[in-house]
């Protein structure tokens, strides 16, 4: 693309993990294994919930959608990263980079909103058990999922579309293994004030607000649990939240680590490691957290795998 005497980039170069060839081979094997475990684990969760009528409840309905979002979230970055590890040329086209930014934001935001929806589900189950079945009906559950998808797509478009107006100089190198929006904005030749304002506004709306909702839900849940007289009742109520709390802690802990590491250290090494935790490790651990901490899910997965082994 050309404008006068100024030439603009039509592709980017992802620096990723720059290391010796033998280290690259180890990284490829490690990340491929983690991706396959993530894909298989979340797919098993989805199949188990779909095939077992006992798990056709709001909590497991939201969990199956979270597993689907995790698979898509990981698939937006890891396959391209694996390809680049094996290649000398680590080029991504301008269109491919914009598409990756859009999809990464969609599924990252969807994860965030689904965790908030699941917190609301636990709030209704523990604090209003008599109204739970009536309130959390299939229609409301469907609307919550559709609303999460709609907000995720609109939020992603809000952050991605302004990037199209920016100009990028030639020989653009992104010190990351995927097209991370903040890193891409740093490379623009044109003014990015509007983009930064949009990013901060969208992040506040679609990240901070759901997280605040999660905190409020668990504040109410804790208040209700403390009012239960028996220790057994308290344990039973709290045990239904342990898996979700673990996933929320992992999701926001690693996400916060990404931005703290990028803000506090000029080196891209810490940011890369934090991003791997955020984009790959967290989606990989989610199925283990839900299957190991949840007896219904654990038993159903064992029966499902047993039927597969027999057949």
Question: Which secondary structure elements does this structure contain, and how are they paired or packed?
Answer:
Elements: E1 2-3, E2 6-7, E3 11-14, H1 21-51, H2 58-75, H3 78-86, E4 91-93, H4 94-127, H5 129-135, H6 138-160, E5 173-174, H7 181-186, H8 193-227, H9 231-239, H10 242-264, H11 268-293, H12 295-310
Parallel strand pairs: 3-5
Antiparallel strand pairs: 1-2, 3-4
Description:
The chain is mostly helical. It has helices spanning 21-51, 58-75, 78-86, 94-127, 129-135, 138-160, 181-186, 193-227, 231-239, 242-264, 268-293, 295-310; strands at residues 2-3, 6-7, 11-14, 91-93, 173-174. The protein has a 3-stranded mixed β-sheet. Mean pLDDT is 84; it is low at 1-7.
Biggest sheet strand order reads 4-3-5
CATH architecture: Up-down Bundle
Residues in helices, as a percent range: over 70%
Overall pLDDT confidence:
84
* CATH top level assignment: Mainly Alpha
Shape: globular
Overall structural class, as computed from helix and strand content, comes to mainly alpha
Per DSSP E runs of 2 or more residues, the count of β-strands stands at 5
The count of domains is 1
Q: What string, H for helix and E for strand, traces the elements in order?
A: EEEHHHEHHHEHHHHHH
Tell me the CATH topology: Rhopdopsin 7-helix transmembrane proteins
The multimeric state of the shown protein is single chain
Distance between the termini: 57 Å
The radius of gyration computed from the alpha-carbon positions, rounded to a whole number of angstroms, is: 21 Å
Largest sheet: 3 strands, mixed
Give the amount of beta strand, in percent: under 5%
Total of helices: 12
In the predicted model, the low-confidence regions spanning at least 5 consecutive residues are 1-7
CATH homology-level superfamily = Rhodopsin 7-helix transmembrane proteins
């Amino acid at each position: 693309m050309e404008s006068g005497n100024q030439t603009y980039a039509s592709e980017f170069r992802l620096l990723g993990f720059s290391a010796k060839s033998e280290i690259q081979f180890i990284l490829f094997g490690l990340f491929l294994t983690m991706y396959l475990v993530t894909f298989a684990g979340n797919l098993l969760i989805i199949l188990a919930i779909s095939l077992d009528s006992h798990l056709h409840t709001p909590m497991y309905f939201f969990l199956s959608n979270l597993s689907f979002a995790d698979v898509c979230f990981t698939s937006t970055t890891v396959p391209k990263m694996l390809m680049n590890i094996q290649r000398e040329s680590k080029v991504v086209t301008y269109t491919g980079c914009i598409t990756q930014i859009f999809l990464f934001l969609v599924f990252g935001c969807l994860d965030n909103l689904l965790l908030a929806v699941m917190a609301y589900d636990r709030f209704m189950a523990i604090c209003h058990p008599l109204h739970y079945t009536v309130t959390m009906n299939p229609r409301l559950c469907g609307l919550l999922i559709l609303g999460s998808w709609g907000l995720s797509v609109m939020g992603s478009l809000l952050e991605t579309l302004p990037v199209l107006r920016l100009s990028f100089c030639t020989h653009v190198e992104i010190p990351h293994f995927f097209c991370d929006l903040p890193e891409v904005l740093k490379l623009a030749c044109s003014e990015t004030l509007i983009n930064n304002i949009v990013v901060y506004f969208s992040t506040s709306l679609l990240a901070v607000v759901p997280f605040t909702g999660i905190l409020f839900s668990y504040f109410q849940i804790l208040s209700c649990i403390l009012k239960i007289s028996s220790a057994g009742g308290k344990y039973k109520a709290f045990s239904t939240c342990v898996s979700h709390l673990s996933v929320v802690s992992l999701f926001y802990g690693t996400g916060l680590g990404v931005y703290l590491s990028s803000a506090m250290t000029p080196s891209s090494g810490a940011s890369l490691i934090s991003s791997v935790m955020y984009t790959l490790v967290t989606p990989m651990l989610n199925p283990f957290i839900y299957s190991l901490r949840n007896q219904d899910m654990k038993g159903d997965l064992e029966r499902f795998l047993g039927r597969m082994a027999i057949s």
